Amino acid sequence: xxxxxxxxxxxxxxxxxxxxxxxxxxxxxxxxxxxxxxxxxxxxxxxxxxxxxxxxxxxxxxxxxxxxxxxxxxxxxxxxxxxxxxxxxxxxxxxxxxxxxxxxxxxxxxxxxxxxxxxxxxxxxxxxxxxxxxxxxxxxxxxxxxxxxxxxxxxxxxxxxxxxxxxxxxxxxxxxxxxxxxxxxxxxxxxxxxxxxxxxxxxxxxxxxxxxxxxxxxxxxxxxxxxxxxxxxxxxxxxxxxxxxxxxxxxxxxxxxxxxxxxxxxxxxxxxxx
Length: 274
Known about the structure:
This protein is an alpha/beta fold and 274 residues long. It is built from five helices and 13 strands. The chain is elongated.
């Protein structure tokens, strides 16, 4: 892990890479259980690279003697750019266990060829929407005993479900949807007893925001179009509804004088006839 910018915020994938190193160290006898639990708690509570770096500084990684490398460049997942997301690189983690607790794998992380998970009175979530993939086909093996797990995949990914449920079940609704060319294939397998494994397809947050912005722009353009048409209609309506011009004071006086002259002529005719 680089110390170039220790104040930068760490991601879930960064914490998972450190947690995987700790699990390997526990299995190799480099850490006892108390040290492992203490460092694991510190890992999941860490917020920056500076807090994560000391946790594995004295532990080797794959015999190389270096702490796990964490990318300082937070690249957004490019929708549809599957060639760039099937990396063939080292996975972020390969297993997870939840006993009366829970776990998550989400954000920018690398899905291994096979991920084994177990939940007893607990739950887990696999969010693959922003993930990279170590292979073109990955297997997520879920064992849920009185617990549940959820697998979230992005549009374009083919899903195959092969799990067995006893008083529980696996969600098959996303099966049969063809994948995009070059997209990875996700196989969900395992066993559920009094539990369940759900599979759902969701857009990424960035894609949702993009669609929301497009709809907002369309509404704005329609509103502007209506506003442009409204002044012309309004002016025509004003012309139709305009009241007839009222006579001025000069016109009224002229009418009075004309009536007076007419009355005067009528009186003269009567006098002449007498």
